[in-house]
Amino acid sequence: MDYSQCLIDNHPSFIEWCRELFDFYWKEAESLKPFINNISKSRIV
């Protein structure tokens, strides 16, 4: 995919790229939730 085309706001490929990026980070965040919960629990105690 040519990301230079994605730099134009509201361009279909820009929107698609943003969606892919969001999905990627959302999945990363989902996998990190247990880790983050453990950290927050250990700090409260």
Please outline the helices and strands.
Blueprint: H1 12-44
Strand percentage? under 5%
What is the subunit arrangement here?
single chain
- Per DSSP, the total helix count is 1
Helix content: over 70%
Global geometry = rod-shaped
For the report, how would you describe the main beta sheet? none
CA radius of gyration: 17 Å
Mean pLDDT across all amino acids: 76
Secondary-structure class? mainly alpha
Low-pLDDT residue spans: none
Number of strands: 0
Instruction: Give the SSE string.
Output: H
Give a written overview of the molecule.
It contains one helix and no strands. It has one helix at residues 12-44. The termini are far apart.
Observed structural traits:
0% strand, single chain, rod-shaped, 73% helix, 45 residues, mainly alpha
Task: Describe the structure concisely for a colleague.
With 45 residues, the protein is an all-alpha fold. The protein contains one helix and no strands.
